[in-house]
Amino acid sequence: PSSFRPPPKVWSTVVRLRVRPRTAVNVRDEALLWRLVSAGFAQRRKTISNNLRSAPELLRLRVEEAGGANRVLEIAGIDSQRRAETLTVEDWVGLSRTIENASTGKPLTKVVDDE
Fold first, then answer.
1. Model's pTM, two decimal places?
2. Residue 46: domain span
């Protein structure tokens, strides 16, 4: 602040952001992950379960094939009454992998990081 006359009544800070070329977590189907996140935040005040039920058709069909919104959320270890903004990146990735596994015929169990 001493560089300015009169000195400002605020302090400034410089923040340096480092852009990563890839996501910080291993994601097999990045397109599915982004569709999930978009659907989850589509209507902010809805629960994640309701947003998945009203997701665009392609995603909604994949969720239904996996047993429905409540089933995939249960398998992923996510309370169906939570809202999108309360989920961590790991929650989103786990949900994505649960849906992927259903699509590939793998057994539906809680997915751990296997990469």
1. 0.72
2. 30-104
